[in-house]
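Hi, here's the filled form for the chain we discussed.

Project: internal
Contact: R.S.
Residues: 322
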Amino acid sequence: MLARIGHELYWLGRYVSRAEHTTRMLEGVFAADLQGRPDDPVGVNLSWGPVMAIMGAEWDGAPVAAADALGRLVLDARQDASVVACVRRAREAARTLRDVVPQDMWEAINTLSLELLAVTPDALASDPSVAFRAVRERCTLFWGLVGRTMLRDEASAFLAAGERLEGADVLLRMLRVVLPAGPRADGAADAGESDGQAHALLRAVGGEQAFRRAAAGPPDTPHVARFLLFERDYPNAVAAHVHGVLRALEQADVAARSSPPVLRLSRLLADLDFHRRSLAGADRNVLVEQGVVVQGELAAVDRDISERYFAGALRPTAFSVA
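And the returned structure, exactly as it came back:
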């Protein structure tokens, strides 16, 4: 496969995955924002400004209203990391890959792009659930069609690698919003607020039922963080995404045993399995530190992938690991 084709497929997977995960996070934060109450010690008090910064959107440090944040993260095409920008780039990538991407996949992403054009800022502010549902359903359809219509060859492998790497990156960004390092300055309601945010994140990624079935413990901050970092049996956990990238590259690379990204991913996966046991009783700060280490490793994996398979092609600045 030409490096250019592999690069387009890899980023097609990342664009669709970013749009889907950003939507899920915004949906969860929006729901938590509605439910949170200042007088509730276990309520959720998520701030939209840090959410925008973590997701790669511009933020000047001033307080941001929910409607403004939603508009900039969903509909503002000038924001490289917004949902509409990711969908447009995915559509453009799919258009240039018409000989590789099946027609049904193209139609799914093209229809989503057209549906987002019909969403106005006023409609988004009054009822964002319509836009959230459209993105979730079309992205789910897109990934379902990948499994049903694409050959299990290099093309599907690079697409899956992009999807999985982006999934891990966004989830780690979410954890940084929920688990800020260090105690709060006032120390008030820190544990209760953090636990509320962690529970909101669990709902945002659709992992509440899986968390209960895994019997990982109460949905407090340390248990949720360990579940989302290390639980390989949950498909949206960081460890599961890392495993998915590793399997995809092993499929795409004829010399996988000597491939730098494959070797790095193998070490990272082994580290995650080890820390699942060694950090069983770790507190929030230790888990935050571990998340930062993993995100740095994933950035190195991304560079390794670019150098080995895509002749060092550059990544979009909006997708740099913050």
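Let me know if anything looks off before we file it.
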